[in-house]
Amino acid sequence: MRSEIRVPKIREGEKKKGVIIRWYREDGDRVKKDEEIAEVMIEKLTLHITAPEDGILTIFTRENEEIEEDSTIGFVETE
Questions:
Q1: What is the mean pLDDT of residues 27-56?
Q2: Which of 8, 53, 68, 77 is a Cys-bridge partner for 3, taking CB atoms 3.0 to 4.6 Å apart?
Q3: For residue 79, pLDDT beyond 80
Q4: What whole-number distance in Å separates Cα of residue 20 and Cα of residue 39?
Q5: C-alpha gyration radius of the chain
Q6: Are strands 55-59 and 45-50 parallel, antiparallel or unpaired?
């Protein structure tokens, strides 16, 4: 089963753009539920993204890549 990794929405209304600052883990790494795996910045707010489940990480976006709130930036494949 796959669990999406999504950028949280910080406000209602228009989606804001941001950037992936850093991935703490690499594509294909095994991650644990609630482990911090990425850092993003939206409107001068730094947000830490956590793994939704235990499993294998697949990354869709690169560091310094522009993203939008509520977008999918990767997924965790559970066993």
A1: 96
A2: 53
A3: no
A4: 6
A5: 12
A6: unpaired
